[in-house]
Amino acid sequence: MLSLRTLARAAPRISRSVTRMPLCSTVIARPAVAQSWKQTVKPAYAAFSTANVFREPAGEGDIELIAKLEEELKHEKASGQEDAREQQASIDYTLEAGQWQVKDVEGEQEVVLTKTFGNETIRVTFTVADINNLAEDPMDDLTDDALADEGDYQNKPAENEDEALPPTFPARVNVTIEKPNNGALLVQAVIQDGDLQIEEISHFKNADIANAQTAEKDWSRQSFYAGPPAENLDPELLAFWGRYLEERGLNLEFQNMVTDYIAFKEQKEYVRWLDNVRKFVAA
Questions:
Q1: Are residues 208 and 221 in contact, defined by beta-carbon separation less than 8 angstroms?
Q2: Is 249 left (phi over 0), alpha (psi -120 to 50) or beta?
Q3: What is the pLDDT of residues 46-70, one digit of tens each?
Q4: If I label 217, which of 153, 157, 230, 271 is the partner at 20 to 30 A Cα–Cα?
Q5: Is 255 a member of any domain?
Q6: Predicted confidence band at 220 (pLDDT cuts at 50, 70, 90)?
């Protein structure tokens, strides 16, 4: 039995064929209608079947995968919306207060902050990838082994015990401070637990080498003397370097903002990734 869609597609063609036929006799008109009907049925059926084949999923698990992706996407969009708005407001406040300009490209991992301080141009870069390096407490394994044979009372929370802190991750930041005709400083540091730990301080006569936005410049930078490891510096001298950066806006509030920004952007990129792969599988 022909489907309604096939009949709907065939009917206009029949009508046009009948209109063009001469009305001399009904005997002549009938074969023309029958012939038009036969010509119409085959293309309509073949076109429908071919389109249906191309719409079939490439694998048997595609439908289940799409459903799971949609479920995850819905969950991520619905959960933590209020916290995300508060986090965004806090980040924006810190950036505005520090007069930072933001370069945050959708789909890219690196974030670039820039500002001016006197005759200096300051550039801070960090990456979302650092959130994958969640810090683990080295005492966890020792604690588990030591308490393995003790009673269940050990697992009961003590009165007035502080809530467990969320896991932290080391956020690596590169800070370049450039002065006209004087090259640039490159400070490599790690932010963790509200503390900025300087690892290395280098000076380059060419500011482009300090920024090293290409692989070629990064390779060239490695051939220069980078200075001693910060841990080998006099503690008092290292403290002055910390104050130097703090006066340029890399204070405690800024450090907390960086880790918040990484977590916030990573969540947005994850939701975007879910949506993109869902659309790809469903296409």
A1: no
A2: left
A3: 444 444 545 565 678 899 999 999 9
A4: 230
A5: yes
A6: low
Task: Give the span between the Cα atoms of 118 and 242, in whole angstroms.
Answer: 19
Dist CA 36 CA 49 (whole Å): 21
Assigned domain for 144 exists: no
Contact (Cβ atoms closer than 8 angstroms) between residue 224 and residue 204: yes
Backbone angles phi, psi at 84, to 5 degrees: -65, -40
Find, among 184, 261, 172, 253, the residue nearest to 217 by Cα.
184
Among left, alpha and beta (phi > 0; psi -120 to 50; other), residue 170 is beta
Number of domains in the chain: 1
Query: Does residue 84 lie within any of the structural domains?
Result: yes
| Domain containing residue 245 | 60-133+167-282
Are residues 94 and 253 in contact, defined by beta-carbon separation less than 8 angstroms?
Answer: yes
The CATH number of residue 80's host domain is: 3.10.280.10
Residues 73-100 have pLDDT tens digits of: 999 988 877 788 888 999 999 999 999 9
pTM score, whole prediction: 0.68
